[in-house]
Design brief:
Blueprint (H helix, E strand, L loop, with lengths): L1 H5 L1 H6 L8 H13 L3 E8 L2 E10 L6 E7 L9 H15 L4 E6 L3 H9 L3 E6 L2 E6 L2
Parallel strand pairs: 3-4
Antiparallel strand pairs: 1-2, 2-3, 4-6, 5-6
């Protein structure tokens, strides 16, 4: 996941495009795995990691912010949509409430994946699009 996060296209489409140091990523991953308000799914095809989907729950309004990142080696294989849909299905088995996503306007692939999974555009702010999915 560290290499995926620092991939040039991933960084360009990320809300935070700066490269990340391995130590910072390892701290983030450790904290993520220990945080009860965060759920991280990693998708596999055989032994290969295809991508990840993360849900950050908000106690304030019961929503969860969704983030997805595909292994660059699997781009172009139409796997982002099924990865997101399966992660949503698993997450929604144990959590209620709306799902939210923030996507860069210049990231049409992610816009398409989220809309195909039932997310609706709620507002646009500059270069960011904010989507909501209500189960």
């Amino acid at each position: 996941m560290f290499a995926w996060r620092n991939d040039a296209l991933t960084r360009a489409m990320s809300l935070d495009p700066e490269p990340i140091a391995r130590e910072a990523h390892e701290r983030w991953l450790t904290q993520t795995l220990q945080d009860p308000s965060r759920t991280l799914y990693v998708a596999y095809r055989g032994q290969a990691k295809v991508g990840m989907c993360r849900f950050d729950r908000s106690e304030a309004n019961g929503s969860a912010l969704v983030s997805i990142n595909l292994n660059p080696a699997f781009r172009g294989q139409k796997l982002a949509r099924p990865l997101l849909q399966q992660a949503m299905d698993l997450f929604c088995q144990t959590h209620a409430g709306p799902l939210e996503a923030t996507v860069r306007r210049d990231n049409p692939a992610s816009v398409q994946v989220f809309t195909q999974c039932g997310f609706e555009l709620r507002r646009a702010e500059g270069e960011l699009l904010h989507f909501v999915h209500t189960p």
